[in-house]
TrEMBL record:
Listed GO biological process terms: heterochromatin organization
SUPFAM superfamilies found in the cross-reference section: Histone H3 K4-specific methyltransferase SET7/9 N-terminal domain
Cross-referenced InterPro entries: MORN_2
GO MF term list: chromatin binding
Protein name: Toxin-antitoxin system YwqK family antitoxin
Positions of region (Disordered): 143-194
């Protein structure tokens, strides 16, 4: 059995430094471009396996990922250059699985969806930059499970042509006992309040 050996591979201004076992990357590896670290990776017998950290060109963390057998697996967090969380998602064997949330730089929730085997499954919500609900739709295995509800930035529902329903129409529908617009209060911010 071969022992771990240090290895450095260079192509242009990119370089990977790590260790090999039986000729395959094994253990920690560091990727640099122009001498600046762009990734810290974990390998097992030539496949990504374990934690991985990616970096913006200025050295700030851009992503914290986990791999199993070469595929994304577990929680993945993506960051803006200032360190603000931009997206959190769950993966299982390389496919989105579970909650996925995306935020604007100010912490306003932009999208919240649930996935199963890489496809939307359950409630998908999108929000306007002011935090109000923009769209809500249920999915089943990637297919819509009913019509989407869409809303203007002021909370009014949108009609089939994408135009806001007037307030008097909303009032009239309410008087007639028709469903009123769903509540469109601002969505949660990041980080969630405890």
């Amino acid at each position: 059995m071969e022992r771990l050996q240090n290895v450095t591979l260079q192509r242009g201004d990119s370089r990977i430094e790590g260790t090999t076992l039986d000729g395959a990357l094994h253990g920690s590896a560091r990727v640099l471009t122009g001498g600046v670290p762009v990734a810290l990776l974990s390998y097992a017998h030539g496949e990504l396996h374990g934690p991985a950290t990616m970096f913006h060109p200025d050295g700030a963390r851009s992503a914290q990922l986990n791999y199993a057998d070469g595929k994304l697996h577990g929680k993945a967090v993506y960051y803006l250059a200032d360190g603000t969380v931009q997206r959190e998602a769950q993966y299982a064997h390389g496919a989105l699985s579970g909650d996925s949330k995306t935020w604007l730089p100010d912490g306003t929730l932009l999208e919240h969806a649930v996935y199963r085997q890489g496809k939307p499954h359950g409630l998908l919500q999108r929000f306007h930059p002011n935090g109000r609900l923009a769209e809500r739709q249920m999915f089943n295995a990637g297919k819509p499970a009913g019509p989407a509800e869409r809303y203007a930035a002021d909370g009014r529902p949108l009609d089939a042509e994408g135009k806001p329903v007037s307030r008097w129409q909303q009032w009239w529908r309410g008087m007639r006992g028709e469903p009123a617009a769903a509540e469109s209060a601002p969505g949660p911010r990041y980080p969630p309040n405890s």
